[in-house]
Amino acid sequence: KNVVLNQFNGCSLNYFSPALISFSQLACYFKTPEENMKVKEINLCKLASNSLFRIRFYLYDSTSKGPGKDISDKVIEINSSKRKVEENLEKYNIIIPGREFFVAIEWIFTDFNAFKMKAKINKKQIKYIAYNPNISFKDLKENVNDAESQEFVWVLNFNGKWEYLNPQFRSNNFLISLKMQ
């Protein structure tokens, strides 16, 4: 039977991307109803712009409660300009051992993904480079069927260490869903 984890209705206009912060991956916690389920499809919302990024799957580390060992040795790269991305992953044959795991978006820091931004910080205008994709999120109280699946959100810093996401974003549901079998 098919199960959808973190099913959401519609995309949001709130976006999250690495800019002025130092991380390369955003990992969201998921829990399946049964052990050893297969990943069939990923759906996510992002800003409608050219984006090249990777999808990663990690075991749940019961000690740190964060992402653990990489589940798949295959590179899953997505190139899409669409706002709603639906990618069939059956050919990768990803089986989730146990029930708890993380799905991560990995940013690829290339000119293709770069865009210029302006912001005011301490009353001073600054220019900086940000990177696609800009992942869509909603407040956990808004339109979410499975808030538990977003209980833990982590980022991988450039030192290769996983850490909790900034507290201001922890109450958000990143619009990433999985169809499992």
Notes on the protein architecture:
This protein has 181 residues and is an all-beta fold. It is 0% helix and 52% strand. It has no helices and 17 strands. Strands 3, 5, 6, 7, 10, 14 and 15 form a seven-stranded antiparallel β-sheet that branches. Strands 1, 4, 8, 9 and 17 form a five-stranded antiparallel β-sheet that branches. Strands 2-13-16 form a three-stranded antiparallel β-sheet, with no helix packed on it.
Largest beta-sheet details = 7 strands, antiparallel
Number of helical stretches of at least 4 residues: 0
- The radius of gyration computed from the alpha-carbon positions, rounded to a whole number of angstroms, is 16 Å
Percent of residues in beta strands? over 45%
- Distance separating the two termini: 6 Å
Following the backbone from N to C, one meets helices and strands in this order, namely: EEEEEEEEEEEEEEEEE
